[in-house]
Amino acid sequence: MTIDIFWRIPTHGEPSSHRARQPFRGDWFPGNDNLSKAGLGGGGKDGFTYIDYLAEIAHAAEISGFQGGLIPSFPMTDEPWVISSVLARETRTFRFMIPFQPGFLNPVTAARMTASLQRATGGRALYNIITGGGGPQQLWWGDTVGHDDRYTRTTEFLDIVRGVWNGGPFSYDGKFYHVEDAGLVDPLSKEDFPEIYFSGSSDAALVSASKHADYYLTWLEPFDDLREKFRRVKEKTDALGRKIKCAVRVDIVARPTEEEAWEEVRRGFDSIDPAIIRQFLASSDGSESVGARRQRANRPTTLNSYKDLIVEPNVWSGFSLLRGGQTQGIVGSYQQVAGRLDELVQLGADAFILASTPHLEEAYRVGEEVLPLVRGHSAPALRKVG
């Protein structure tokens, strides 16, 4: 059994460690002024941009044995399609996991964009399909479609992308899309269809994932909860005569000893603004996301120490306090982190998206010290381009 392991590209910038918010790398941090201070000795810019920093991380992940990287998509990031195109010229084997919400692209246009990227990079594009959590953030994108209907729209979108991929003519009449005699032309139609990593924890999400996903992608949760989630999604795909794999997004802090790893977490926790902790303990952020609700279910009612967020051995539920994003991750020695990843493989995980701050240095650390200990992991093969 081969386990694919991806890294994460911090398109929103990042602090230089878990222990402090400054100095900050990248130019998305509100109020960040390090661009005017860094660079040449006299304070002038040296021509090194945030894109160069992302390229360094992609190189580090490629060198360290990761299959590729997730390129996040949020209101405070650059567009992942564009970043992927830029980084493609900087790497040779690195695969680009592109998150997007299907409702914001025409499906035929998306098929042409993807096939073009596949052709230019030797088949290195992957989809991370996100249907959206609703609430204020969904309205930021101008999307007013209800929760379950968004998954219906996603299903129709992927029906069409698959339908036109091999040349057509393909026609479709759905609730959200109508297409007549569409199809990609050669040579685009001869490119490999991208693997689909599908995010979503609701029943509506599982129905859509079971039809189209190659990998069902979830945040890390308590291990017993993940076992049940994997069972549910595989049961639905089995009923359709399909097979699906499962993938887990995991933030990690890995150090030579467990004590060093928890000390890193403690120092990060102790530096957090009390206002951020109060917000963290709030019951809801207005999102309709079932996955986010499952993450919040493991929060304590009071929070006085980083230890209050340990939900099971080596699993800590405070990562969103340190850098935003998902809540739960793995903390421990190199052997412990690899061991817990192996346990997830035994539960049914076939792939991982790992992350740690700062992503540049940690790509080397995790690649050199943790990945070789994960059973089933192998370095990616060189992909022919052209």
Automatic annotation (TrEMBL):
Keywords: Flavoprotein, FMN, Monooxygenase, Oxidoreductase. Transmembrane segments: none annotated. Residues 49-350 form the Luciferase-like domain. InterPro entries: Luciferase-like_dom, Luciferase-like_sf, SsuD_RutA_monooxygenase. GO terms for molecular function: alkanesulfonate monooxygenase activity. The keyword Secreted does not apply. It comes from the Bacteria. This is Alkanesulfonate monooxygenase. It comes from Noviherbaspirillum denitrificans.
